[in-house]
Amino acid sequence: MNKKQTKLTTDNVITLAEAKTKLNGAMLRLRTQYGFAPEKGITLEEMKSRCDKLVSEIDTAVREYVEETGQAPDRMKNLPSNLFPIGKFNGLAEYANVPDEKLKRAPLYTAEAIGNLLNFNADYLLKAEHEATVKNRTREEWSRAEYEYVEKSDYNLHDLYDDLMKKLDDTFEPISYQEYRQERRKWKQCRYFACDNYFPINKEHMESESFKRSGIKFRRTDAKYCCSDCRKSQENAIKRLEKTGTLLPEHAYEYILDDAREKRAAKEVATEQEKLEKVADIW
Known about the structure:
By secondary structure, the protein is mainly alpha-helical.
């Protein structure tokens, strides 16, 4: 059964143009009102109320558009290019692979522009929800998060035991269990909460290849940290605990907005590209 084709007339073209203009005006007003970051410190309930109002107004604007035109708002289409040199796209293909930058600048009367505004506000709603959850975390929950957070693990307990077991199981010159225990006593764990390193406190310690690669140095018997950086980091962590209720730095639990995440990713790609170019220049 063939789909019934709507006959194109001057009247429905005018109606469609008027409806687009009306929808465009409504979206311009909504973007002016909701297209900017909410005030700092906005509560979860306030952000929920803001999103509910936005959804309700968009729903009204789109419903009126559909009633007047009999169709959904326009969608961004892909056009033939050097990347996709095809004369004509068929079916869903015409909506695929539309460049991100083009989608971000979609005309206000399109479904993509509506989606962009909803997504923008939904991101801040998730941020407010995350911040509310963080604010209500118990000490037990923070302790679990602190335990899982690791900044340094150049030579950890697994590495130490792995090297000791290799010596214990060596085919030609195995060490005894007594020697195993003696060697184990020569090592201490770094006391910085985010460091998993083990360091030697006896000059006559085992030096495997994995330990040499770690760059960790021998420390005094009464040393608590594998390096001075860890000592300073633990001092700062204690200050954070008194101020924020957790040893964790803010970046370890903050919510990253989509826009900020994309910018960071682009910056990282650019940095890696610069590194590759420098290597290429050397060669």
